[in-house]
Design brief:
disordered N terminus, 12 helices, 320 residues, mainly alpha, flat, 78% helix
């Protein structure tokens, strides 16, 4: 039975990954690839500058986890946990969750498995909450700032309000004992923990953790600004918010696609069309972001492998 479930998870992840790749392939096929290639050649080595803004939201996300753990673990160690764990989330196809068990295990170097699993569970739930809330805020901001066609206006305001209500419901659930109750039952059933004890999450800790996640979400706009500037463009704040809203919407509605491959690019291309830019430029924008994702995934895995190598080498020297 367990083997069947594991096989299902493996192939369901690959199935949705394939869908994302097909969406991306269709986008590339129907657009003028020369425009995309010219944009990349224009960037050259400067594309490395696009990778830098990610540091800011990685730090914000690390502060969220630190808050949930009551700052019991040194920040550099938590930062290592975030960078390497998120890298494994990128390279595993199962809805970006492959790095969570690794994160949990790594945290047990400082806290109990009980505390580590509880913190990772809450961090993941608050991450999801921040994504829904951010999508709602940006969609409603677009409605308020941009004159939209009736169809777009109704869609954006409806989805924005629904997501705002869902944010409130999810926040209530996170503050209740429900998530830890069900998570504890699963952990016991899998015989990973014999006695799972849940500590209540205070409202102040929740708000601080959620605040750091939201700051990280808004810091994504810095990346958009950098890409625009490197492409020789001077965007308005409204344009950046619109792109951010469409990207967040695509990621929220189709979260099952691993790392939003294809879906994110389609969302950004749609946003570019909405604000009057060519679709090809939108796809270029999305592919540049995808290059950043790949860079940090490789960096995180390389960092972990390098750490394990040095640790093993140090152990060998001690033995000899």
């Amino acid at each position: 039975m367990k083997e069947t479930k594991s096989t299902y998870k493996k192939y369901s992840g690959l199935f949705f990954l394939t869908i994302g790749i097909i969406i991306l392939a269709v986008l590339v096929y129907f657009l003028d690839i020369r425009v995309i290639l010219e944009s990349f050649s224009l960037l050259g080595y400067k594309i490395g500058l696009v990778f830098i803004p990610a540091i800011f939201w990685i730090m914000a996300n690390t502060m969220c986890l630190s808050t949930l753990l009551q700052h019991k673990i040194p920040f550099p160690n938590l930062l290592f946990n975030q960078v390497t764990g998120d890298a494994y989330n990128v390279i595993t196809p199962f809805a970006g969750l492959g790095g969570e068990p690794y994160k949990m295990k790594h945290l047990t170097n400082w806290v109990s498995l009980n505390e580590a699993s509880e913190a990772i569970l809450r961090d993941r739930l608050i991450h999801s909450l921040s994504g829904i809330t951010y999508t709602s805020f940006t969609l409603l901001a677009v409605v308020a700032l941009i004159p939209l066609e009736k169809a777009f206006f109704i869609t954006f305001i409806s989805v924005g309000l629904v997501l705002l209500v869902l944010s409130g419901i999810l926040a209530f659930i996170i503050l209740s004992s429900a998530p830890n109750k069900y998570f504890g039952a699963i952990m016991k059933k899998l015989k990973l923990l014999e006695d799972y004890r849940s500590n209540p999450l205070s409202r102040s800790t929740f708000l601080k953790a959620w605040g750091f996640k939201m700051v990280g979400r808004f810091l994504n706009m810095v990346e958009f600004l950098v890409i625009f500037i490197l492409l020789g463009m001077q965007p308005d704040l409204i344009e950046i918010i619109t792109i951010s809203a469409m990207l967040a919407l695509s990621g929220t509605l189709l979260f099952i696609i691993p790392q939003g491959i294809g879906v994110n690019e389609a969302g950004i291309s749609g946003a570019f069309k909405l604000i009057g830019y060519p679709l090809e430029l939108g796809l270029t924008f999305g592919l540049i972001r995808r290059a950043r994702v790949i860079f940090w995934a490789l960096f995180g895995v390389g960092l972990h492998v390098g750490y394990l190598f040095l640790k093993k080498r140090k152990h060998l020297f001690k033995v000899s």
